[in-house]
Design brief:
The complex is a heterodimer.
Chain A lengths: L2 E6 H11 L7 E6 L11 H14 L7 E6 L3 H5 L4 H4 L10 E4 L5 E3 L6 H9 L3
Helix pairs in contact in A: 2-5
Chain B lengths: L1 H11 L3 H17 L13 E6 L3 H12 L4 E4 L15 H6 L1 H22 L13 H25 L3 E3 L2 E6 L2 E6 L2 E12 L3 E3 L7 H4 L1 E2 H4 L9 E4 L3 H12 L4 E4 L10 H13 L3 E3 L2 E8 L5 E7 L4 E6 L1 E4 L3 E3 L32 E3 L11 H16 L13 E3 L4 E6 L2 H8 L4 E7 L3 H4 L9 E7 L6 E8 L2 H13 L4 H5 L11 H4 L18
Parallel strand pairs in B: 1-2, 1-6, 2-3, 6-17, 8-15, 9-10, 9-15, 10-11
Antiparallel strand pairs in B: 4-5, 5-6, 7-16, 12-13, 13-14, 18-19, 19-22, 20-21, 21-22
Helix pairs in contact in B: 3-11, 5-6, 5-9
Classes of the chains: A alpha/beta, B alpha/beta.
The complex binds flavin-adenine dinucleotide.
The site of flavin-adenine dinucleotide has 34 residues of chain B, from α3, α4, α5, β4 and α11.
Chain lengths: ~130, ~525
């Protein structure tokens, strides 16, 4: 079973990644907009991508980790100096962004809504 | 089936008349195809199968798919003798333009750091050192992300990517073996875009101990003292960045440096590399490479007077030319003919002697071996096959740049070519040495900063060729390539106002002709 983790905001994210010693299995990180009080994300593209990503995740190897990172409110994300944008480890340009951590595999924005691309990210062997 | 046999027979006895007629027929058919997707034929599994996922193949595949064709691309990299292999995208992305430009940039930064001290930066440039492992890692990381983006793009554009070596089974059938097993693909059109690979010298130890440009950009150890055998642009570029990164570099030249380029410019490039400390062994041929007990490579060579020499190196890099990967394709099963020494394919508008089989890129006979050439030809071909385009590829006036430490960019004819085609009486050559403003402060050598314009002598003096040696030559020559394609003349050039202070403006200031015998050196004052 893929192990899922839920992270909120940059501080928690950088702390978590620091201590996250994953010995085997791929680590997938999915950056999206935080949820509004209503329970859904403020970011419409993230809402569209979510079911596609969750479905494709079933294809990932069982020893994988899936880390969902809510980057914060709309105000926090829209700030040009948002640490998710400036940290060289993430350098996010858009949300949603889906990354195989430490590898070149990465999908951004609308790409995360395309099942064939998301499936490739979770199964790519190269 | 009867038809099929007859076609095959025709392929076995090709004659020139038939050949050209067939090409015309296909051409006419294509003109009538407006929207390809509406006319799909079901006789074949694919409308187009592309052999080779490099610059040309991928461009054609993506364009064809966007026009509604059903397309598959096969790409497979046979590992080098020392086991180097790489991902999707072909030579340019993995072992060509991209890693080369990044390493060139790495080397240039070293020079800039030295200059920086003169510009007031508090540094100790004597102590700077490049870390090969870090540079290699950075370059390889970039390549890996390009490989991924390429795979995403193909998937997104509905081009099927097959990681297998393709061979012809018959004129419309490609066979391949993938991890998943054997596959047979039939296609209406087939595009050969398999590119080429470096050749090794036919001397003892070359393959066992030598490497090529296919290995250098991912080499797991420092290259150290390196002998580059071959003085084409790839050999010079490798020697140039290795020297710039701090390694001892020697270039062994068989006959001439940069054979395909203007020889005056080639000579200046050679001198500028020598000034930077790159060694040149002229008119020499290697005779053997042996491995010593201490792991170093012992190389023997002879010069044209049959004198023998030897030295030890850490790395021997062969850059003596490239061979098209056509022999491996079993072209005899399709009837496609090869031409010349390099196993090349001769085409008319990218069409081979077999009308439904096309070729683009480095496999083509007597065409520039450059990425943008392969891409443009591939795109235009796809539009002619599957769109309603009739636009043909123009292989003339393609600009190019040699990324030696001092870059050399050119477009159009060399001085030799112009003299041969038009005669010395009809050619005027303008030339100048110049001083880049930014070279003064760090007192960089300016003796090799040179440019020339080759033009017709009469009337407006139509420009036939432009040549520039200096910083950012690639960036400079690109715009002038567009100007040449718009029939640039000397009078237009001289009436163009420059951007000051740049090096590109030197083209607008050029006024001394070789014929005048005047000194092309700049006045001592600085503009
Ligand atoms: C060191 C170096 C530096 C260069 N620098 C520049 C530069 O600065 N600028 C520039 O414009 N050009 C440069 N080039 C040239 C440029 O890389 C080529 O012109 C370009 O890549 C040619 O594209 P192509 O499509 O013909 O073939 P390639 O890009 O070589 O692609 C062919 C692909 O087909 C694969 N293949 C071969 N046979 C088969 C088969 N049977 N089945 C399946 N797949 C197969 C190959 O493995 C390869 O992946 C450089 C080349 C080198 C070597």
């Amino acid at each position: 079973m893929v192990k899922q983790h839920q992270i909120e905001g940059y501080d928690q994210f950088s702390e978590f990644m620091k201590n996250f010693a994953n010995t085997d299995g791929e680590v997938y990180v999915y950056f999206s907009g935080s949820k509004l009080p209503s329970g859904i994300s403020w970011c419409p593209d993230c809402i569209k991508a979510k079911p596609i990503v969750e479905e494709a995740l079933k294809l990932a190897k069982p020893n994988s980790h899936f880390i969902v990172v809510d980057v914060g409110s709309r105000e926090i994300w829209k700030d040009r100096n948002c640490p998710f944008r400036t940290d060289p480890k993430t350098r996010l340009l858009v949300i949603p962004t889906l990354i195989r951590w430490g590898h070149p595999q990465k999908l951004e924005g609308e790409q995360c809504e395309k099942p064939e691309l998301v499936e490739m990210l979770f199964t790519d062997e190269e | 089936m009867a038809l099929f046999v007859r076609t095959l027979r025709c392929f076995n006895f090709p004659n020139l008349y038939n050949h050209n007629l067939n090409r015309q027929i296909v051409f006419l058919q294509n003109v009538n195809l407006k929207f390809y997707s509406k006319k799909r034929e079901n006789q074949y599994q694919y409308d187009l199968v592309v052999l080779g996922g490099g610059s040309g193949g991928l461009a054609a595949a993506k364009e064809a798919s966007a026009l509604g064709a059903k397309v598959a691309v096969l790409d497979y990299v046979t590992p080098t003798p020392i086991g180097t292999k790489w991902g999707l995208g072909g030579t340019c992305v993995n072992v060509g333009c991209i890693p080369k430009k990044l390493m060139h940039q790495g080397a240039l930064l070293g020079e800039s750091i030295k200059d920086a001290a003169s510009y007031g930066w508090d540094l100790e440039p004597e102590n700077i050192k490049n870390n090969w492992a870090s540079l290699r890692q950075a370059v390889q990381n970039h390549i890996k992300s390009v490989n991924w983006v390429t795979r995403v793009e193909l998937r997104d554009k509905k081009v099927e990517y097959i990681n297998g070596l393709g061979v012809f089974k018959d004129p419309n059938t490609i066979q391949t073996i993938t991890k998943q097993g054997e596959r047979t693909l039939t296609a209406k059109y087939i595009l050969i875009a398999v590119g080429g690979r470096p050749r090794y010298s036919d001397i003892p130890g070359a393959i066992e101990y030598g490497i090529t440009s296919d290995d250098i950009f991912s080499l797991g150890r420092e290259p150290g003292k390196t002998l580059v055998i071959g003085a084409g642009y790839i050999g010079l570029e490798c020697a140039g960045f290795l020297k710039g990164l701090g390694f001892d570099a020697t270039v062994m030249v068989r006959s001439v440096v940069l054979r395909e380029f203007d020889q005056q410019m080639a000579k200046i490039i050679t001198e500028s590399m020598q000034e930077r400390g790159v060694n040149f062994l002229f008119k020499c041929l290697p005779s053997s490479v042996e491995k010593l007990d201490n792991g170093k490579l012992f190389v023997r060579w002879t010069n044209n007077e049959m004198e023998q020499f030897s030295d030890t190196f850490d790395t021997v890099l062969f850059a003596i030319g490239r061979r098209a990967l056509t022999r491996e394709l079993h072209l005899e099963n399709a009837g496609v003919e090869l031409i010349g020494e390099g196993d090349k394919i001769d085409v008319v508008n990218e069409q081979t002697n077999v009308p439904h089989i096309f070729a683009v890129g480095d496999v083509l006979y007597k065409k520039p071996e450059l990425t943008p050439v392969a891409i443009h030809a591939g795109k235009l071909l796809a539009r002619r096959l599957f769109g309603d385009s009739t636009m043909l590829m123009n292989y003339h006036n393609v600009a190019t740049t040699v990324f030696t430490p001092m870059e050399y960019g050119c477009v159009g004819l060399s001085e030799e070519e112009a003299l041969e085609q038009y005669g010395a009486d009809n050619i005027e050559v303008y030339h100048a040495y110049y001083k880049p403003t930014e070279f003064f402060v760090p007192q960089r050598s300016i003796v090799h900063c040179y440019l020339k314009v080759v033009a017709l002598l009469e009337e407006d003096q139509k420009v036939l060729g432009l040549h520039f040696i200096g910083p950012h030559a690639g960036e400079i020559i690109q715009g002038f390539a567009a100007a040449i394609n718009c029939n640039l003349t000397m009078s237009i050039l001289k009436n163009t106002v420059g951007i000051h202070p740049t090096v590109a403006e030197e083209f607008t200031r050029i006024n001394i002709t070789k014929r005048s015998g005047k000194d092309p050196n700049p006045q001592s004052c600085c503009s």
